[in-house]
């Protein structure tokens, strides 16, 4: 259903319907902004790049192949814009841990709050040791709830490689946490 809705909007845009483009922007703007912010970690720059993405979409919409998901196409454009920016600025990015963890705030004890902050810190430090591709896999999988198939299309690597990298990252993180717990005397 979502795919058909996107195709109808795209056809309308290609026929000159500006309101359909506004609808498309409204539908994807938050997703694209979050994705870009998770890579760049600067709100203003993320907003600028998001705007560039939609300009690119508008200018290149006639090249979109509707056999594929529009969401994958626009996320790929966003990813490429981020890579261009990172290359241009030669800036190392850090991940948006709160989006990555995906935990919602609730009433917690002070001890739980401290533990939560420590956990976020451990995750942030671990993610910052990953390659850019591995960071993108983790961000897309956790923050954007993207399927392995879609991640492979967005990052232009085969699906089995995405899965292998994802599970390797998870396993390495588990080992790191286990070593850390053992070192601190919290062996399970």
From TrEMBL:
Entry keyword annotation includes Transcription: yes
BP GO terms, sorted: DNA-templated transcription initiation
SUPFAM superfamilies cross-referenced by the UniProt entry: Sigma2 domain of RNA polymerase sigma factors, Sigma3 and sigma4 domains of RNA polymerase sigma factors
Residues of the RNA polymerase sigma factor 70 region 4 type domain: 121-171
Ranges of residues in domain RNA polymerase sigma-70 region: 24-90
Gene3D superfamilies: 1.10.1740.10, Winged helix-like DNA-binding domain superfamily/Winged helix DNA-binding domain (1.10.10.10)
Entry GO MF terms: DNA binding; sigma factor activity
Record flagged with keyword Transcription: yes
Top-level taxon: Bacteria
Keywords per UniProt: Sigma factor, Transcription, Transcription regulation
Family of the protein in this entry: Belongs to the sigma-70 factor family. ECF subfamily.
UniProt-recorded name of the protein: ECF RNA polymerase sigma factor SigW
Organism in which the protein naturally occurs: Clostridium colicanis DSM 13634
Taxonomic lineage from the root: Bacteria, Bacillati, Bacillota, Clostridia, Eubacteriales
Gene expressing this chain: sigW_1
């Amino acid at each position: 259903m979502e795919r058909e809705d996107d195709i109808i909007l795209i056809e309308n845009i290609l026929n000159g319907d500006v309101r359909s483009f506004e609808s498309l922007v409204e539908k994807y703007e938050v997703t694209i902004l979050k994705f870009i912010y998770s890579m760049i970690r600067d709100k203003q720059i993320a907003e600028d790049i998001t705007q560039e993405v939609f300009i690119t979409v508008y200018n290149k919409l006639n090249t979109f192949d509707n056999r594929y998901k529009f969401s994958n196409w626009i996320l790929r454009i966003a990813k490429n814009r981020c890579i261009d920016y990172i290359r241009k600025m030669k800036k190392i990015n850090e991940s948006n841990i709160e989006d990555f963890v995906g935990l919602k705030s609730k009433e917690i004890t002070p001890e739980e709050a401290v533990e939560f902050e420590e956990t976020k810190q451990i995750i942030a430090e671990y993610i910052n040791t990953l390659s850019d591709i591995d960071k993108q896999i983790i961000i897309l999988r956790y923050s954007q709830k993207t399927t392995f198939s879609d991640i492979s299309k967005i990052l232009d690597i085969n699906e089995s490689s995405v899965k292998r990298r994802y599970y390797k990252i998870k396993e390495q993180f588990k080992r790191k946490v286990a070593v850390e717990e053992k070192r601190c005397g919290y062996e399970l």
